[in-house]
Every structure is written in C-alpha cells, then in structure tokens.
Amino acid sequence: MTAVMIISGVMLVLAALVTTQRLLAGPGSLDRLIAMDTLIGTAICGLSVWATYTGDTTIVPAIVALALVGFIGSVSVARFRVSDDS
Fold first, then answer.
1. Residue among 38, 4, 33 nearest 18 (CA)
2. What pLDDT is recorded for position 32?
3. What are the average pLDDT values for consecutive 10-residue runs of the chain, which has 86 residues?
4. What whole-number distance in Å separates Cα of residue 5 and Cα of residue 82?
5. Looking at residue 20, what is its pLDDT?
6. What is this structure's pTM?
7. Which end of the chain is more exposed for a tag (fewer CB within 10 A), N or C?
8. Which residues cross the membrane (predicted)?
9. How far is it, in rounded angstroms, from Cα 61 to Cα 26?
10. Residue 17's CB: how many other CB atoms inside 10 A?
C-alpha cells in the first residue's frame, strides 16, 4: 500500500510540473485557465492521496473548498471571456 501511495505522489508531482509549464508558457488566456483548473485538480488529488495515506480526515474541508474555488473560478472566467454575440 505504501508503494502505491509513493508512486501516485510522484506521478502527481510530475503532473503538477508539466501543468505549471503550460500555465507559464500558455499562448492564450484560455490555455492558462485550463492549466490552472488542472493544477487545482492535481492539488485536490494530492490532498486526497495524503488524507488516505495518513488516515486524517481533517483535510476533507480543504478538498471541498479547492473544488468550489476551481469550479467558480473556471465558470466566472469562461463567462466573461466568451462574447455574447448571438
């Protein structure tokens, strides 16, 4: 079980590094928005792996808060980024 947690942690760190590269080098604002949303999802997964590894459930409100911030941020940026020419 410990090996699975270590492997998943390493894979999440690698995913965060690749996503950070896309966040910094993204040519457009929508690319950066998707990269930020992916980075928040990776952080949620990392916190979930840590909560599973330690058996500590006090991290769950932080996971829910990150999910809400990611959702509301993505929806609000997408709302004001897309034009209403219909």
1. 38
2. 85
3. 90 95 85 89 94 92 93 83 60
4. 40
5. 93
6. 0.84
7. C
8. 6-24, 33-53, 59-80
9. 31
10. 10
Token digits of residue 60: 């769950």
Token pair 């999440």 is found at: 12
Q: Are 36 and 73 in contact (CB under 8 A)?
A: yes
**Which tokens hold the place of 81?**
């980024």
Amino acid at 68: L
Lookup: tokens for 65: 């808060």
Look up residue 45 and give its two tokens. Answer: 């997964």
Task: For residue 4, give both structure tokens.
Answer: 């699975």
Cα end-to-end distance, the chain, whole Å: 54
d(Cα 64, Cα 34) in Å, to the nearest integer? 19
Query: What pLDDT does 49 receive?
Result: 93
**Domains, the chain:** 2-81 (1.10.287)
